[in-house]
From TrEMBL:
PANTHER family reported for this sequence: CONSERVED HYPOTHETICAL ALANINE AND LEUCINE RICH PROTEIN (PTHR40459)
InterPro entries in alphabetical order: 6-PGluconate_DH-like_C_sf, DUF2520, NAD(P)-bd_dom_sf, TM1727-like_C_sf
One Pfam match: DUF2520
Domain DUF2520, first and last residues per copy: 139-263
Chain segments annotated as transmembrane: none
Name of this protein: DUF2520 domain-containing protein
Classification of source organism: Bacteria, Pseudomonadati, Myxococcota, Polyangia, Polyangiales
């Protein structure tokens, strides 16, 4: 485990980026998104879809990214070693899995091969749409040489590289999934409700996208609980009750979702304290009445 301070990035020399030549194995959402961003940053990059298999000749890049499914990372590392595809020159081999550490690549590690985990906390949803990486967070851990190269690449992409000693990677990955996929599910629920309110689905999505972006900006800049808005923060029990009445009438299947979200907001609203305690108690009674 690296002992690098998560809040103090190691020095990155400008010339490091110019020396990086990247090979990405895996042409799915993450692989294609990273390839496009790396190319846009002015670096040389080769993208090889996993369906084509590993190349038959040695990989000449000095930075190799395995953008494949978690279960395929260790077998890929073994194949890189057994076929002699890496190790003939100095190379950093990294994977992009959030829940796996650098040891998933242990088979490829050697005298001239360093390995690392390099997980972008970014939502990659489609091979044809590359997400915006700038200001994104990049968790890196592994051998010092590979970590340095990955941090250099991250900075080149406008991301913030971080290393967290002793990180519980499964909990870390669960948090990322909860926010990314939970937000997508929440947006789907919102589209459903807006459609029932009289707005077509395409327009509903176009309305909710900017709303989610402003929430993301508030979370990043203000943090929590300050990013919270709406009737729960204001202690508006009557407003919450009206929302639930509309949901019961138009979309009863979304009521549990709303109740769970409101219940999660309540402790945050109490910390902010913009309404008296009895106002928040009244919201709790509204939620309890629905759950009975």
């Amino acid at each position: 485990m690296s002992e690098m301070d998560s809040t103090r990035p190691s020095p990155v020399h400008p010339e490091d980026n110019a020396l990086l030549e990247v090979f990405i194995y895996g042409g799915g959402k993450v692989g294609r998104g990273l390839a496009r961003a790396i190319r846009d940053a002015g670096l040389r990059v080769t993208l090889r879809p996993a369906r084509d298999g590993l190349p038959s000749e040695r990989i000449e890049a000095n930075f190799v990214i395995l953008a494949v499914r978690d279960r395929d990372i260790a077998p890929c590392a073994e194949a890189l070693r057994d076929r002699g595809l890496v190790g003939h020159r100095d190379v950093a081999v990294v994977h992009c899995a959030g829940a796996l550490g650098p040891e998933a690549l242990a088979a490829a590690r050697g005298g001239r091969v360093s390995v690392a985990q390099m997980h972008p906390m970014i939502s990659f949803a489609s091979p044809s749409f590359a997400p915006f990486l700038e200001r994104g967070q990049l968790h890196i851990d592994g051998d010092p040489t590979a970590v340095r190269a990955a941090r250099s690449l991250g900075v080149c992409l406008g991301m913030t590289p971080r290393t967290f000693p002793g990180l519980d990677r499964v909990a870390y990955h669960a948090a990322a999934g909860l926010v990314a996929n939970g937000a997508a599910a929440l947006a789907a629920a919102g589209v459903d409700l807006l459609e029932r309110a009289g707005i077509d689905r395409r327009t509903a999505a176009e309305m909710l996208g900017p709303l989610l972006r402003t929430v993301a900006d508030n979370v990043e800049v203000l943090g929590v609980p300050d990013a919270l808005t709406g009737p729960v923060r204001r202690g508006d029990a009557a407003g919450v009750a009206r929302h639930l009445e509309a949901l019961c009438r138009l979309a009863p299947h979304l009521v549990p979702f709303y109740v769970a979200a409101a219940a999660t907001q309540l402790p945050l609203a109490r910390v902010l304290g913009e309404a008296p305690a009895d106002a928040f108690d009244a919201i709790q009674r509204v939620l309890d009445g629905i759950q009975q």
